[in-house]
Specification:
Rossmann fold; single chain; 8 helices; alpha/beta; six-stranded mixed sheet; globular
């Protein structure tokens, strides 16, 4: 009999049927919204908490703290509750109300500040004391190891080892780092492509980090190319995925799909996989689908 943790991972890989105009290029979406917490971050949250428990860094009764833009917080709140751990999540005040309510439903304390950078500073300051354990997804190697152990192997398996390009939005960069490590070990010619917002754009879940806040787990040598995507492109592609493909996702997934389409326009033949990192119901109170 499975428990909820057993349902994390092994998400579907589905082909884009109507929005791909390139007959010799296959584009596939890795549906991470099918994880029980609704996003790709379930994988990292589980690995970060379980690994810390195995090392003895945390135990029953430990109070966790973490800065999050939303999905990691939801995943951590879900996993923390399962292991009887208290958690405070620090999130930008402009995050959708659905995210805050979901974290609170899982039993987390939510603190709202102005920017994600302020949230990170606040969490790091509190986490430096004896009363809290800072999860620190931005520096925690167990973040990307979750994808080295799970997401990457699943993609390799489900494409029958024929993947040519991997596309991921870049936030904490855990997904792209872990998948890059695994996929490049299988076939060094696989192209690893990151997606980030254009200078003037704001896309939930994707960041263009200032140098001093760049995630410590990020290694630029593991990314072959970065494609900038505008807010309008990410929004339009998220809406089209819902209406034309039945794939209900947020803006960061729309951005990754826009990057995948750009790649598809440049090559003669390819098997492109992009991460559809969460579900669209996280954004219903925003104007994404309005």
């Amino acid at each position: 009999m499975k428990n909820i943790i057993d349902c994390i991972g092994n998400t579907p890989l589905v082909e884009i049927q109507h929005l791909n105009p390139y007959s010799n290029v296959n584009i596939y979406a890795k549906l991470e919204g099918n994880n029980p917490g609704g996003s790709v971050k379930d994988r990292a949250a589980l690995n970060m908490i379980q690994s810390a428990m195995e090392r003895g860094d945390i135990k029953k009764g430990t109070r966790l703290i973490e800065a999050t833009s939303g999905n990691t917080g939801i995943a951590l709140a879900m996993i923390a509750g399962i292991y009887d751990l208290q958690i405070e999540l620090v999130m930008p005040a402009n995050s959708t109300r659905e995210r805050t309510l979901t974290m609170e439903a899982f039993g987390a304390q939510v603190t709202l500040l102005e920017t994600i950078e302020e949230c990170r500073d606040y969490a790091e300051q509190k986490g430096s004391g004896a009363d809290y354990f800072l999860v620190d997804q931005f520096s925690n190697k167990d973040n990307y190891k979750a994808h080295y152990k799970g997401t990457g192997p699943e993609i390799w398996r489900d494409t029958d080892q024929k993947i040519t390009h991997f596309v991921s939005s870049m936030g904490t960069t855990g997904s792209i780092m872990g998948c890059s490590m695994f996929l490049k070990e299988q076939n060094p010619s696989i192209q690893i492509v990151g997606c980030q917002p254009t200078e003037e754009s704001s896309i939930p879940g994707i960041r263009r980090w200032p140098e001093e806040y760049l995630p410590k787990i990020y290694d630029p040598k593991r990314v072959d190319r970065i494609i900038d995507v505008s807010q309008n492109q990410a929004t339009d592609m998220a809406r089209q995925l819902a209406r034309r493909e039945g794939i209900f996702v947020g803006m960061s997934s729309g951005g990754a799909f826009a990057a995948a389409l750009k790649l598809a326009s440049e090559v003669k033949e390819a098997n492109i996989v992009f991460i559809a990192c969460d579900r669209g119901d996280r954004y219903l109170s925003s104007d994404l689908f309005g």
